[in-house]
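Design request, tokens follow.
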């Protein structure tokens, strides 16, 4: 009994030692675990935003502490006079703090107001663009953070104009020449619009960078119009000239009727402007839509493919620009007469002799398919250009089938006759 008691005492002592060792180890580990410092709250540079601007010169976002802003001496050198909208060079000296910039503004503008600008980090020689409104302005060296003006130089922005010369009348949709004089600043263009249109509106146009004279395309709407020289900056009209857009004599001549899918001849007269075409559509089709067509650039007469339809239709002369209808002529399209003759039954996969009559238009063909096959599906086939009779293989599966005459245009079935395929 004493022997067992001694053994229990020994086990108890060993257990206590193990527990103490574990506790000491945990304490040691906790002491060795580094504690992460609280995140530092860096203060970004003060960057006030200019009114009504999503981006402003000198805007800097950084969690790194910026060095103190230097408000030392600075100079700016610019021309005494510049034309409105023109680019000009500015030389500067200054502290070149991060975000510092050079800008052009009205002489009485507040320090935090900016016009066209360039940051000093670009280099010692910068290029600015003068505003379009003439007047007394200043080129300023401004610090990026505090918006302190360190230097300024007066600049007079001079009014600019433009002149335009062209024929007094142009045919709708035609191309014509325009001679011009003007500042030819970046983005300037010449446009033609209806008389009285707001100054910011534009129609067909060409950039002045292409030189003088340039070629402009007249609109497809007749009436009084205006040529305008417009500045790329602010869309200010610098010069304008009246011009009249007149209609063209347009005629269409063709047969009064034709067979669906056939090709007809159309004699036409019209302006023959780039992209103009003649189309044929069902009567009542809204203007601007088109069907089969041929470009007038091919001359007169031209060949036009009639659609697979029956009923009243219309030939139309259409402008390539704006899809305007300049002339129209009624035409009746007659359904093609088609007959098919074939044996009442045939063996699966066997050759079937088919006698037919029909329009034999380009791409027309005869095929044999299961009666359940949707229109547009085909099996073995032969083009009608092979003549009549012709031989076509029946489907390999037994059952009710059809011999079909199918138009090459649109895959429309023009005639069908039943045939039984037997095993």
């Amino acid at each position: 009994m004493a022997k067992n008691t001694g053994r229990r005492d020994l086990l108890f002592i060993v257990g206590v030692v193990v527990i103490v060792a574990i506790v000491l180890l945990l304490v040691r580990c906790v002491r060795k675990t580094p504690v992460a410092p609280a995140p530092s709250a860096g203060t970004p540079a003060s960057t006030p935003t200019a009114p009504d601007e999503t981006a402003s010169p000198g805007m800097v976002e950084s969690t790194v502490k910026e060095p103190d802003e230097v408000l030392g001496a600075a100079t700016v050198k610019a021309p005494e006079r510049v034309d409105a909208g023109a680019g000009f060079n500015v030389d500067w000296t200054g502290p070149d703090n991060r975000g510092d910039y050079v800008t052009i503004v009205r002489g009485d503008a507040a320090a935090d107001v900016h016009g066209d600008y360039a940051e000093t980090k670009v280099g010692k020689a910068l290029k600015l663009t003068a505003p379009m409104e003439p007047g007394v302005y200043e080129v300023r060296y401004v610090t990026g953070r505090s918006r302190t003006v360190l230097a300024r130089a007066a600049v007079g922005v001079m009014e600019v104009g433009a002149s335009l010369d062209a024929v007094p009348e142009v045919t709708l949709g035609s191309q014509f020449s325009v001679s011009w004089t003007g500042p030819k600043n970046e983005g300037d263009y010449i446009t033609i619009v209806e008389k009285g249109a707001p100054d910011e509106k534009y129609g067909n146009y060409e950039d002045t960078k292409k030189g003088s004279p340039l070629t402009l395309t007249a609109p497809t709407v007749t009436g009084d119009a205006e040529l305008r020289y417009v500045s790329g900056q602010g869309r200010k009209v610098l010069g304008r000239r009246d011009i009249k857009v007149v209609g063209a004599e347009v005629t269409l001549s063709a047969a009064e009727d034709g067979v669906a899918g056939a090709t007809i001849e159309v004699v036409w007269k019209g302006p023959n402007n780039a992209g103009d075409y003649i189309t044929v559509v069902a009567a009542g089709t809204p203007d601007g839509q088109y069907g089969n067509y041929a470009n007038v650039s091919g001359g007169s007469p031209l060949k036009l493919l009639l659609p697979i339809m029956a009923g009243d239709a219309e030939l139309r002369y259409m402008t390539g620009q704006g899809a305007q209808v300049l002339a129209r002529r009624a035409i009746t399209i007659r359904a093609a007469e088609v007959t098919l003759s074939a044996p009442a039954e045939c063996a699966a996969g066997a050759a079937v002799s088919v006698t037919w009559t029909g329009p034999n238009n380009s791409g027309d063909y005869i095929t044999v398919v299961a009666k359940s096959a949707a229109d547009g599906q085909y099996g073995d086939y032969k083009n009608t250009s092979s003549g009549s009779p012709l031989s076509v293989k029946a489907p390999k599966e037994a059952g009710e089938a059809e011999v079909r005459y199918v138009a090459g245009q649109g895959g429309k079935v023009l005639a069908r006759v039943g045939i039984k395929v037997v095993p």
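Comment from the thread starter after seeing the answer: thanks! Residues 1-8, 23-54 have pLDDT under 50 and may be disordered.
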